[in-house]
Design goal:
alpha+beta, 4 strands, globular
Length: about 90
């Protein structure tokens, strides 16, 4: 089960949030699309306008490589204009 954390850009502490809160935060910056929602389905660091969302999977020790963020799941293609799955 994935866990979601939010950290404001001007703060050091993060707090655990729900999927709905993570999505709502993202929709303040990102367009509502398949890509936006898919980014919340994998371990990820997602940059938003005023905060970062961290998606963590506690069932695995694998983590995204440092410096990579705004990742989409592998093997899915998106339309460049709508960000929806092709």
């Amino acid at each position: 089960m994935l866990k979601y954390y939010k950290r404001m850009k001007d703060e050091d502490n993060e707090q655990e949030i729900t999927y709905d809160e993570a999505l709502r935060t993202m929709l303040g910056t990102w367009r509502d699309s398949d890509l936006t929602r898919d980014m919340l389905t994998i371990q990820n660091y997602i940059e938003c306008q005023y905060s970062w969302i961290r998606v963590d999977d506690p069932s695995t020790t694998m983590k995204p490589m440092p410096g990579l963020w705004n990742l989409a799941p592998e093997g899915i293609e998106y339309d460049e204009e709508t960000w929806n799955r092709i």
